[in-house]
Amino acid sequence: MGGSAFDQQASRLTQEQHARLTRIITDLAAPFFQGTSAPRNTASKKTHGDVDVICGYAGEKCGGQEEWDPESKTPVPLKGGKVVAGQPADELRALAVTLMGAIGAVGLRRHGSTLNYKVPLSILNANETSSEKFYQVDLDLVAPGDIEFNTFLTSYGATSFLLGRCLRFYSPSVVLHLTHFAFRHAPFIGIPPIDITLTNDPGEFCKWFGLDYQVWKTEGLQWRWDWQFWKWLTDVEDGTPAAVAYKQMIRRVKRDGAPVSFGKKDRFPSEFYQYLLERSKWSKEWENTTSAEEFSESGSSRGKRKQVPDEMQSIIDIDNPTEYDEGGAAVLTYWGKEKVYQELFEQRKALAAPIAVSQKIRLEKKARQKALLDAQEAMIKMNFGGSAVDQ
What's the domain of life for this entry (predicted)? Predict the structure, then answer.
């Protein structure tokens, strides 16, 4: 949370302090979890607002927002927070309190499966005696099998931001979560979309996208600057999904200009766009792209419904479902999920059918009422020269 999980901003950490505190917290928390990891950072990030440690938790996840009450010595709901009861919540609550003692924290807040702690500055310097200042430590609890994927996506400041944006240019039918990569498509309006998990293995994801995960695992440990990460991210072969995405990104920027930066989530991608256009192996694509309309004209006809009147836009059409795009089709083929998709499609169609019938009956009734009113108005005009409204 950047050091802002509590009412008072946490003290910032230098790179050296951050690395040291990460090691300390990881060692202290490790006995309570099935694996731990920490996101990587480059030297371009001079200071840090908090320490993040990813922890493998096999227990059931639960929601809720709570904080440590020093008077009752128990977690209580945050102001406006939801009270969560049941065994999973009790177990997570008990673990959070146990960890509070294990790492020497003086404050705790829980937001679902994320545990935020106030840790005294004395953990790094015994001479620090301030009772007001503190470091913030975040323990992010994920399923043990999702640790590696989560570490991959939360490293180097904005991996999830960059890959998420790149994927949009490849296909609107793919979604990148912090714990897995998925296919998502809604063939019928108002019916839950089809959601298929493709992988939670970063190596498999990188292989599909066109990236070399082994380079990330080994050489990536030595990366000190953002451009080294960006070079790895763009050093892909032509024809891969990543290459398709970068070409589309370049066409979009050439047509619309680079995005305006408003904050970290915009600034970091903007700097990446600049690298992509000026220094990456795809910079020549920028020089050779001459048609500003090429991007809009290259879209597939798939993923679109037939044009219908505005009043029909929210109506389910069983015979005209929204199709997924060509990129989505390639994804299903690559991961061997066509059969799974078709089975889920039939389930969604069965859910949509009775709703479509009900909507059709309602529309037909509305049409009959309109026809009757039109006929009455025509008769009034013919007999009296006015309208039904005037009467």
Answer: Eukaryota
Name 359's Cβ contacts closer than 8 Å, sequence gap at least 6: 315, 316
Q: What is the pLDDT along the chain (391 residues), one digit of tens a residue?
A: 577 889 899 999 999 999 999 999 999 999 999 999 999 998 888 899 999 999 999 999 888 899 998 888 888 888 877 778 899 999 999 999 999 999 999 999 999 999 999 999 999 999 888 888 999 999 999 999 999 999 999 999 778 989 998 999 999 999 999 999 999 999 998 889 999 999 999 999 999 999 999 999 999 999 989 999 999 999 999 999 999 999 998 888 878 776 655 455 555 677 888 889 888 988 876 566 544 444 443 444 455 544 544 444 456 677 889 999 999 999 999 999 999 999 999 999 998 888 867 767 677 677 777 777 777 777 777 777 655 445 5
Burial-class residue 389 by CB neighbours within 10 Å (0-12, 13-18, 19+): exposed
Query: Is residue 322 within 8 Å of 187, Cβ to Cβ?
Result: yes
Residues across the chain? 391
The rounded distance, in Å, linking the Cα atoms of 85 and 50 is 29
Q: Using DSSP, state whether 113 is helix, strand or coil.
A: coil
Three-state SS for 19-58 is HHHHHHHHHHHHHHCCCEECCCCCCCCCEECCEEEEEECC
Residue 385 CA, distance from chain mean position: 62
CA distances from 267 to 118, 161, 245, 272 (A): 29, 11, 20, 9
Site of tokens 């039109």: 374
For the domain spanning 13-142, the CATH number is: 3.30.460
Q: Coil, strand or helix: which one is 59? A: coil
Could you state, in order of their start, the residue ranges of all structural domains in the chain? 13-142, 151-312
Q: Is the pTM of this model over 0.85?
A: no
